Amino acid sequence: MDVGADEFEQSLPLLQELVAGADFVGLDIEFTGLRSNLSRPQQISLFDLPSEWYLKTRQSVQQFTICQIGLSMFSSIEGESNKYVAHSCNFFLFPTTFGILDSEFSFQASSVQFLNQYGFDYNKFLKNGIPYMNEEQEKKIKHSILRGNWRVRSSLDKDQIKVVIDKVTQWLDLAEEGDQMTLPGIAGFQAFEVQLVLRQALPNIWTVLKEEWVIVKKVSQPQRWYLEHASCDQVSCWKEQILLSARGFSVFFQMLVKAQKPLVGHNMMMDLLHLHEKFFRPLPESYDQFKQNIHSLFPVLIDTKNVTKDIWKKV
Amino acid sequence: MDVGADEFEQSLPLLQELVAGADFVGLDIEFTGLRSNLSRPQQISLFDLPSEWYLKTRQSVQQFTICQIGLSMFSSIEGESNKYVAHSCNFFLFPTTFGILDSEFSFQASSVQFLNQYGFDYNKFLKNGIPYMNEEQEKKIKHSILRGNWRVRSSLDKDQIKVVIDKVTQWLDLAEEGDQMTLPGIAGFQAFEVQLVLRQALPNIWTVLKEEWVIVKKVSQPQRWYLEHASCDQVSCWKEQILLSARGFSVFFQMLVKAQKPLVGHNMMMDLLHLHEKFFRPLPESYDQFKQNIHSLFPVLIDTKNVTKDIWKKV
After folding, report:
1. Separation CA B142–CA B236 (nearest Å)
2. PANTHER family, per this entry (chains A, B) (predicted)?
């Protein structure tokens, strides 16, 4: 099952159930690049100590990003030994862009070739990727959302918001109390952003979100006060909702951590570095600290590369 | 008309004709990012001198890439003054990946949002982008092609080539002289690369390219010698052909330069920096040198931003 931003929130309860019932979870991650083109002393060598490998790889992990995570939740079949049912999901991810956050990431041409070979759909990644953030970014966003004055970053956002305000202001001039208009094609964070800006700019309107439409209603000031303080639409609770949307895949990552299921992958060191950097915290400088963190997140890690090496040794 | 790698080579003659007949050429470029998130002293300021703006922008131009170039060839209608016919093409571009060349480029989340807003198709860019290179890269590639021993970069290429060699070797064991086999689904550079590797590895075969098929024929050594020295398949002429394919859009860029037509754009400084860096030479450190280069490439540049400013001043 492919899961993008459009499907993610509604699939969360099912995902939580699958993780809770799993015996172990299989993991495979696709990246926009593996190793940056570094000059000689920074290149990976077979003679690197693990800590040297870590420091060199850390740099590439900070530069490239995750475009897809494949997870398979394996649960045993009752009464049948060594038989499992697997539920697999492909999550397309895209770094959260919201307010002050405008991330940059690199693409490596050879990785693009690799992904092409397997029919990767870039539109799913770049147009409908699920947002995510690590704890540090979450702290920043939380701070700016709670202060209610995050800056609109890209010039497009500014233009779009200008167009929307102009449109609503023109309509408002002739509208009567109770009239409503709709703004089509606004979804996700943008819908939250547009609503917040409109509500801040115009004291005699109220906004409601309905699928990909923002509905604007002309209201009196007492009505507005009432709506703002109604239990289901208090700004504080609404802000929580925005943060939940912006955290996206990180919400699921935290579920996965909490479930403490064995995590199984093949040649998964790179995957673990990315999991740490993208959903937990920026990679520490110390390799020991990284190992400690990963083991506290996932106490049981099984890398099938090591398993096969071990079997080969015995053979 | 959308033009990707698949359509590019065959549309070159028509493009050359359109450019030759044009009175002026309109230009608009889309990028994967505009301005890198720089720390304070490196940020663009309204008070920057043009040379300061240039040095700061140069850094972003090196980091981001062109994903699409829109060109419109305007030619006047005979006998009607101030009336033009415009032929417009959208070229999807992707940096050449070939042998030693494995480029990295960045994406900026806000630019992705911008491109999404206009329905940009990332699959056309990342799966079917026309290759290109500047003079410096061309020199490197030429050198490695002429020496005939470029390294295969990505692990996928290595795997693919291993599979192909295994397949051909197995077939060769049982084949008789004159027999032939086909390798399907190999196009573009890869087809050249596969053929060169096969011809180098196996002395008693010959290869021919037919659309997306590489045809392998078992031949005797004298036949092989003859085919290698036949006028239409001399390795040197073949290598020229590879280089022509790898140069891709740069071939058309050079046509455009040679035609010396006025180039018209809106707010086109960024576009000019990218044209210089991607198709001509890496941007020089000196702003004056950049201006000199651009004017020798395109003697007549018309920026409609300056035109409108001028009209506003007069009004």
Report:
1. 11
2. POLY A -SPECIFIC RIBONUCLEASE/TARGET OF EGR1, MEMBER 1 (PTHR15092), POLY(A)-SPECIFIC RIBONUCLEASE PNLDC1 (PTHR15092:SF22)
